[in-house]
Write a structure and sequence with these properties.
One of its GO terms (cellular component) is cytoplasm. This is Ornithine cyclodeaminase family protein. This protein has 305 residues and is of the alpha/beta class. 33% of the residues lie in helices and 24% in strands. The radius of gyration is 18 Å and the shape is globular. The protein starts with a strand and ends with a helix.
């Protein structure tokens, strides 16, 4: 059995590797061969500590990812998030590989945003409004900066001290970050990314300019919400997996019967242009197991060379 440790996977992962693996996974998710199973949402003995189990199969891979979110880790100065990926040996029904994936998961999540944004945002998009100042938000900023030449990143946070610290962190990575208020950021942005644990809209629909692309990265459980539902009727809506997005993702807040398009089907089209320059596009990432399985496979290949 192959065992990739956290140190090994963390050393091998990059935004480039994650982007290519997740792009292939999102395309695979739209294939008739793909089977993505319902997400299991669980909690630990302390109810504030939660975990999810996501599983899937396609023509080449079968496996699952267990992801945990333990806020109580703050007291021990440990990361709140952790993940582990299990790949089956499909010939024998045993676990063929274990990939420890705490850092990997952050790259994989940001890669989904980058893949969707690259397909949906205008090619000349330069300004990013980023809601969130936590662990995941920095990966989102770095991933978007890789696929668009950003001239400004407007960071919107709830806590002033954390926001200032986060802006300084992004600047250390060479990104043009600054603090901003929600309305100013939305009215200025070409791209809006939300990476929070919010349970209510972070901004108003009429603050969003025509032609803006929006990625909601934080809604992955019942009750979570980052975007104003009033925006959906005037936007083109995309997601990683429509049935999951409507159940636990951002589009759980959309009206029943709302049309959702799997981003994988967009990636396989010969043209990725918007239908109109002024279209607002929204991508909801609730996270699917094929992203984890394809990323784990790529990490195994990278560490074996």
């Amino acid at each position: 059995m192959i065992h990739i440790t956290e140190a090994q996977s963390g050393a091998a992962i990059s935004h480039e590797l994650a982007f290519e693996a997740v792009r292939r996974a999102l395309i695979a998710a739209s294939s008739p061969e793909a089977a993505i199973f319902p997400v299991v949402l669980g909690r630990a003995s302390d109810p504030q500590n939660k975990f999810t189990v996501k599983s899937a199969a396609d023509g080449s891979l079968t496996g699952l990812k267990v992801g945990s979110y333990f806020p109580t880790n703050d007291a021990a100065d440990l990361p709140r998030h952790d993940s582990i990926i299990l790949l089956f040996d499909q010939a024998k029904g045993r676990i063929g590989a274990i990939v420890e994936a705490g850092k990997l998961n952050a790259y994989r999540t940001a890669a989904a945003n980058a893949v969707a944004t690259d397909a949906l945002a205008h090619s000349n998009a330069q300004t990013l409004a980023l809601f969130g100042t936590g662990h995941q938000a920095s990966y989102e900023a770095l991933a978007i900066a890789r696929i668009r030449s950003l001239t400004k990143i407007m960071v919107v946070g709830r806590n002033a001290d954390r926001t200032r610290s986060f802006v300084a962190h992004l600047r250390e990575h060479g990104l043009p970050a600054e603090e901003a208020q929600a309305e100013t950021a939305c009215r200025t942005a070409d791209i809006i990314v939300t990476a929070t644990t919010a349970t209510a809209p972070l901004f108003q629909a009429d603050w969003v300019r025509p032609g803006t692309h929006i990625s909601s990265m934080g809604s992955d459980a019942i009750g979570k919400q980052e975007l104003p539902p009033q925006l959906f009727a005037q936007s083109r809506l995309f997601c990683d997996l429509p049935e999951q997005s409507a159940r636990i993702g951002e589009f759980q807040h959309a009206e029943a019967g709302t049309s959702l398009t799997a981003i994988g089907s967009v990636l396989t089209e010969s043209s990725k242009d918007r239908r109109a320059t002024d279209d607002i596009t929204i991508f909801d990432s609730s996270g699917i197991a094929l992203q984890d399985l394809y990323t784990a496979e790529a990490i195994i290949a990278a560490t074996s060379t």
